[in-house]
Structure prediction request, 593 residues.
Amino acid sequence: MKLDHMFKKTKQIASRKNDSIRGEKHPSVPRGLLRKCNKCGGAIIAEDAIADYYICPKCGGYFRVDAYSRIARVADEGSFEEWDSGLLNGNPMAFRGYEEKIRTLQEKTGLDEAIVTGEARVGGHRVVLGVCDGRFMMASMGEIVGEKIARAVERATKEKLPVILFACSGGARMQEGIVSLMQMAKTSAALKRHSDAGLLYISVLTDPTTGGVTASFAMLGDIILAEPKALIGFAGPRVIEQTIGEKLPKGFQRAEFLLAHGFIDGIVERDQLRDTLDTILRLHDGVGVHGETSECGQTDAREEEDRKEHESAQESADLGNGEAERESADLRRYIDAWERVQLSRRNDRPVGGDYIRALFTDFVELHGDRCFADDRAVIGGIALFHGMPVTVIAQAKGSNTKENIDRHFGMPSPEGYRKALRLMRQAEKFHRPVICFVDTPGAFCGLEAEERGQGEAIARSIYEMSALKTPVLSIVIGEGGSGGALAMATADEVWMLENSVYSILSPEGFASILWKDSKRAKEAAAVMRMTAEELKEQGIIELVFAEPEQYTTEHMQDVIEHLDKEMLRFLGQYGAYSVEELTDHRYERFRRI
Prediction:
C-alpha cells in the first residue's frame, strides 16, 4: 500500500514539473462555478446548464426549473401578468412550526406559495398559465395552491381562455391534512366547468409529479405532455417498494413508462416545448398557419359548384361501366373479388400514415387510451386540412415486416379503439370534424384482448360514433374487416378506394365457417359481395375512388387530389348542418340498410 501511495505521489509531482517546464498552470476554478450533476455525478459548469435550459451538458439529464425561469422560456417575452399573489396561508391543523416554515420558504425563494399563476401569451395566443415550483415544500398542494389553481381556471372559463398547468409536486400537503385533500376536488371541479365550456386544458408533467396532484388536476388535461424521464405516479416508488416488499423495475413510473401504458399523449424535450404548445394552441384556434379562415365555409355559389363537381366525380368514379358490364356478372365477380382482396393486402400499398402526411399539415399525434396502453395499431391526433382543424384517426399497418409486427398488422386491441374514441370525444368537445382511415383485417384476436374487453370496446365505439355531435367521415383504404372496421366506420359517409374491400370477415374465415374449408376463400370473396363497386350498388358506401394500376406511395397524387376535393365538399356540406340534422342524418343512414 505504501509503495502504491508513493508511486501515485511521484506521478503527481512529475506531472506538475512537466507542466511547469511547458509553462502551463492549472486553472483556478472560482468557488461555486462548478456543480455536481445529480444524474451522472459529473462536474459541470452551472452557467452552461442554466443557459441550456437546466440540462446537464454531459448526460442530458434534466434539472428542476423554478417557476419564473420556466415561464420566461415558455411565454412570449414580457407577456406574463401574475395573478393572485400574496394570498395568506392558514394552518388548518394548527401544525407546530408550519407557519414558521412557510415564512422561511417565502424569504428564501421569493415565492408566496408553491405555484405561480397568471395570464401570458404563447406564440401570440392568450393563455392562462400555472407553474408549480418544487423549491417550495416540493410544490405540495395545500389550500393556497388549490385556491390559486381554482381561481385561475375560473377566470380562464369566464374569459374563454385555454389553460396550461405545469405540474411538479410531491402530492398533497401533509401539514394541512384533510383540507389539502379537498383541493383535489376543488381543482378537478373547476377544470370540469372549464371543459364543459368547450375550452382547452394542456397539462405538462415534470419531475416529479406524484400523489394527490397526479390524482387530480395533473391527469385531467385534454392533452397531457411530459418531460423525458419525469417521475409520474400516484404512490411514490419508495412507498410502493415498502408496501409490496419488492424492488421496482428500471424505468417504472417514468414518463416513457406512462406513454407506453397509454396515460399521456407525448413526451416533449424542453427545447421543443414552446413550439409544441404553440402548434397545439393554433390547432385549437380554428385558423391556419397564416391566420386564414377555413375553406370549408363555402358560399352558395361555391357549394353549387362543388355539388356539380361531386356529381361529375361520382360518375367518373363509378365502376362496372362499359366493357365490364358486358361481361358475365358471375364470372367477373368470381375473378375480380379475389384479385381486389389480394390488392388490398399488398405490402407496398399506401397505409394510414401515408394519407395523413399527404392530406394534412401540422399533424400532432396523441397517444394512449388513458386506461392501459398506447396501441400502435391506431394512429390519431389533430391536424389542419386547408386551414381547418380536424381530428384524424387511422388504423395503421406498417410499411415493412418490423413495423407490421409492432402494429399487430393493423389489428387494433381494445386500447386502440378506446384511444380512437377518446380522440373522437375530444373532437366533439372542440367542434372538430373526425376523419378516419380504415385498414384492418379485423380486431386483434388474442387472450389479452378478450381479457381487456375487446367486444365492449368495439361496441362502445359504434355506440358513441352513432351520435357524435360533429361530422364524421370514414375512408376504407385497404381492408375493412368485420366489427374491427365498423368501429371506425359508423360515419356520415363511408368511402372506399377502388381496390379496397369491406366485409363481415375475411374470405378465409367465411369459407372456414360456412364450408369448413378455408381453401375456398377465392369463391367466398365472390359470394360475399365485398368489393367497392358492389357495396356502392347496395348503398353501403357513398363514393369509390379510382386507383392507378400500380398503387404505391409513389403513385398517390391523383388519388390524393380526388380525396382532397371530395373532403372539402364533405366538410362544407356537413359542417353546415345543425347538431340535430347531423345526428338524425347519420341515424337514418344506418336505419335504412
